[in-house]
What we know:
The protein is mainly α.
Amino acid sequence: MKKILAWSVTVVTAATCTFGAAVPATAADVTTFTAATSTTSSGTGTDTSRLSPDLKALVDQMLAELPADWEQRRDAAAARYGIHDTQWAQLRDSVINPGDYQCGSTAFREYANGLRTGIEDQDLRDWLDVFGAFDIPTYDALVFGGESKDSTFGVHGDYTEELTKEQKDLKKFWDVYSEDIQLVPMHGREVFSSQERVARVLSLMFGITNEPVVRRLAGVVISLVNADPVLQGGDNPLFTFNAFAFSEKGDPNPAGISDRIVMGDGILEALKAVGLGDTAPRTVLAHEFGHHVQYEDNLFAGTTLTGPEATRRTELMADAFGSYYLAHHRGLRFSDTATLRAAKSFYEVGDCGFASPGHHGTPNQRLAASLWGASVAADTVKKNYVLPSPKLDELFEAKLPDIVKPDATN
């Protein structure tokens, strides 16, 4: 198995935004962008003419200093580290008939779409997309980040205590080896306030070893991020709208990155904005840890499902595993009300990308998987007994056909 990203979300793909992709790193989240194109003096085929003079000067400087094949280098780095990939694009052939399912927009999806359209200067936003600026905090946390006693979670550190404690509790709860799993924060402004941190990411993305050049490029990117107040110097949730589990277990070409769960400030802000800030952060972390249970038990294998249905299986399983922990007496002991709110979190991030290999399940399917996992915990006769994770998987596999059965009303 190759590197895995899970619950991977970037708002640049808000139209198909879903949490929790457990997919190979060489086919992870996609960031698609079609630039306004016309032949320019830069020779790149991208158009800077619509930018203000100040922004045009910055973008032109960036284009002039980047290597000629910078776009290919950007894409190669994204593929190597699983930052994004075209597998999130819609496939030509749908595996699932959308007409069989109830599937519509959610408050979370609408919030995500609003972030992207809320940037006043859309041309600036597009150029930030092209240069990979929205991925910089993800690279920073994934490749250079680590767990620390000084780590904070949330823009203002609001979720630090609860997430740090929960990570410790999750390691005690599950029956898999987990001591090496790090909980890593992802911040925006903190990264874009450091020319050194932006430079090392750009060096990684574009393969630039000339330190003066990469530092100048970092200065340009930071200036672009600070050019629009709406971007909040990197604290706009767009930059950290990402949370994922990562493992190189079984990868024949590891990059030397430890097992980790990365929690972006943007995701936490988004969940708070749709009224789920009291339970959803812990729900996300429980889901992410569920993916690490899958890694350790090799649960990505052992299925005949392929494409969208295969990814949907592992995502719904992580929903169920997460909710089992949340509701269990030895887990977080969520009340019925809190359990329903946790299930609501999964519902909100369901998606309708039936043809995408990153399809995670419809809102109703994610709700059903979550409620099922919680019910297994609630029905345990011996309240302190935790099912072995392979046994919980066995029960889930038997329940899966019922969870994903068509539910459209004609």
